[in-house]
């Protein structure tokens, strides 16, 4: 149901981790995701820990799903001295090519415990159905 649009995305993510660079709006970091089918719904879950729900953008143009999020630094008092900072900050993005069999008009999004979950129903036209055949004035049902 999904096609990766950039085969080098994982390599970019690893390079950014090694170099400690953070993403920007023009060059965002990758975000990890899982995708699976649950009955007649396709589910995609993105890990976005520490991101506020108002800092997440979800767009669908034709069959291209784009999720962008920004993890901003926590505001600290003036007398706070940072000793260690390993949590990545900046902009994260992921693009996923969705199959024509998915109903992009009815995507549901939920955000809980740092996980953005998108539920995309399978389009009615893609579901199996029975086809009636008229033969000699008699109709028969075939198909799965």
UniProtKB/TrEMBL annotation:
Domain SHSP: 24-136
SUPFAM superfamilies reported for this sequence: HSP20-like chaperones
Cross-referenced Gene3D superfamilies: 2.60.40.790
UniProt cross-references to CDD domains, sorted A to Z: ACD_sHsps-like (cd06464)
InterPro entries from the UniProt entry: A-crystallin/Hsp20_dom, HSP20-like_chaperone, Small_HSP
Pfam family, one: HSP20
Family: Belongs to the small heat shock protein (HSP20) family.
Alphabetical list of PANTHER family matching this protein: HEAT-SHOCK PROTEIN 20 FAMILY MEMBER
Name listed for the protein in its UniProt record: Hsp20/alpha crystallin family protein
